[in-house]
Amino acid sequence: MTVVNPASGKGGVLVAMSGGVDSSVAALILRRQGLQVVGVTMQLFPQPQTSTFDSGLSTGRSCCSLTDVLDAKEVSNKLDFDHQVHNFSRLFQAEVIERFVKAYLSGRTPNPCIDCNRRLKFTRLYERAQLMGLDLMATGHYVRTATDPKTGRRLLLKAKDPEKDQSYVLYGLTQEELARTVFPLGNILKSEVRSLASQAGLINASKPDSQDICFVRDGAYAGFVENLCPFPVPGDIIDLKGQTLGRHQGIHHYTVGQRKGLGICGQEPLYVVKIDAQTNSVTVGPERALYSDGAIVSEVNLISINELTAPLEVQAKIRYRQPPFPAVLEPIGPEMVRLRFKAPQKAVTPGQAAVFYLGDVVVGGGTIEAPLS
User: Fold this and answer.
1) In whole angstroms, what is the distance from residue 81 CA to residue 78 CA?
2) pLDDT for 3
3) What DSSP line would sit under 41-101, residue for residue?
4) How many angstroms separate the CA atoms of 75 and 202, rounded?
5) Tell me, what CATH number does 247's domain have?
6) pTM for the whole thing?
7) What does the alpha-carbon distance between residue 205 and residue 195 come to, in Å, rounded to a whole number?
8) How far is CA 229 from CA 15, 66, 95, 121, 252, in A?
9) Which of 81, 155, 265, 340 is the most buried (most CB within 10 A)?
10) Is 100 part of any domain?
11) Comparing C-alpha atoms, which of 264, 3, 274, 216 is closest to residue 96?
12) 229 given a catalytic annotation
C-alpha cells in the first residue's frame, strides 16, 4: 500500500474554508507546495441577522457565522489567494436539514455532518471547483489517502493523530471523490497544525474547534425540530412487556440509550431501548436491554473493496468517539449488510453510522437500520 498526496493538479485546488484553523492550515500547506489555491466558504443556511455581506450570516461563533467568513477572508489575504463565499443554503435545507428533521420524526438519530459531507461538500462543492477550472478540492479533515498497489483502488485511512481522526464521518467518499480530493492534515498532529498557524501569523491559530451542529446552536435538537414541525404528537412510554409507564411529548425528544428526561421512574434506572414511529411509542428498559449482537446496515458505501461477496472480519465503530471492536460483515442485499459483533455492544442506534475498518484502512460504512437481538 502506498500513501499518496494527490496535490499535483496544475489547474489548482479549491480549499473548503470554514474559518477554522484546520482548513486554514490546509490552505497554508498547499500554498507552500506552490499550488494555486482558491478558498471557498459555504454559506449553508440563512439566519435572521444580516451581515455586511448581505448574506444573512449570523455573528455567532459557529460554522458559517460572519466571524468565520471574516476569519477565512483574513487568512486568504495573509496567504495571498482568492477567497469566495458560495451560497448553498437551499441545497443544505433540502439535503441536510429536512433529512435531519425527517429522521427525528421517524424515531431515528441522524448525523447531519455525514449528510453534509456526502451530499454537498464532496459533490456540489467540487462541481463549483470544476466551473472555476480547478482540478482538485481540499479540506481540513484529519484523514489520509492511499492507493492499493494490487487493485489500484483509492483508499481512505485513519489520520496520524488518533484524537482527531475523522474517517468515521467520511466513509461515504467514492473512488472518484477520493481521486480528486486532498487532505493535507492527515499526516500531522493537531498540535503541529496550531504551531504552523501560529508561526504563519494566522488570525485563527488559537481559535477553538467548533463542537455543535451548525444549525442547532444550543444543542436543543427537539426544539429545532418543533420550530419546523410545530405540532408534536404525544404517545406512550412503555416497558419491555408493552405496559404503559407514562406519556411522551413527541418521539423526537428521545434517542436510544437516553436515560435523563424520561419523566418516569422504576425499581432500577431506565433507558430508551427502542423508538417506534409506527406506534408512536418509546420503549424503556434496564441498561442490560440496550446490548445487541449486531446491526442491519443500509446505504452501504464500500471503499477498499468493490463488493462484499462473503463474510469479512473487520473492526467496527457505531459511534464517532468509540474505539473499534471486532465484528463480521455479511452481505444480505444491494448496499445492505449484516454486521455481527464478536461481543454485544451497547445502544445500537438507528440513523447513526456504522463504519468498518481493517487496521487503519476504511473498508466502508453505512446507516444503522436496526439492532440484532
Assistant:
1) 8
2) 44
3) EEE----SS--TTSS---SSSSTT-HHHHHHHHHHHHHHT-EEEEEE-HHHHIIIIIHHHH
4) 6
5) 2.30.30.280
6) 0.91
7) 8
8) 36, 28, 17, 27, 11
9) 155
10) yes
11) 216
12) no
Per-residue model confidence as pLDDT tens digits over 42-55? 998 765 443 333 33
Same-domain status, 180 and 265 = no
Amino acid at 13: V
**Grid coordinates representing 84?**
469566495
pLDDT tens, 227-249?
898 888 999 999 999 999 999 99
Interacting residues of 286 by C-beta distance below 8 A, sequence separation 6+? 268, 269, 270, 271
Report CA-CA distances (Å) from 219 to 62, 213, 215, 351: 12, 7, 9, 18
CA 26 to CA 258: how far, in whole Å? 37
Q: Which domain holds residue 190?
A: 2-199
Domain count, the chain: 3
- Catalytic-labelled residue, pool 113, 116, 229, 265: 116
Per the residue annotation, which of 64, 214, 229, 265 is the catalytic one?
A: 214
- Tens digits of residue pLDDT in 247-281: 999 999 999 999 999 999 888 999 999 999 999 99
Q: Are residues 182 and 247 in the same domain?
A: no
- CATH number, domain with residue 311: 2.40.30.10
Q: What average pLDDT does the chain have?
A: 91
Neighbours of 38 (CB within 10 A): 20
302: three-class secondary structure by DSSP: strand
Which residues are CB-neighbours of 106 under 8 A, at least 6 positions away? 277
- Kindly report the backbone phi and psi dihedral angles of residue 333, in degrees, each rounded to the nearest multiple of 5, phi listed first: 170, 175
Backbone angles phi, psi at 252, to 5 degrees: -70, -5
Q: 292 near 341, Cβ under 8 Å? A: yes
Span between the terminal Cα atoms of the chain, in Å: 38
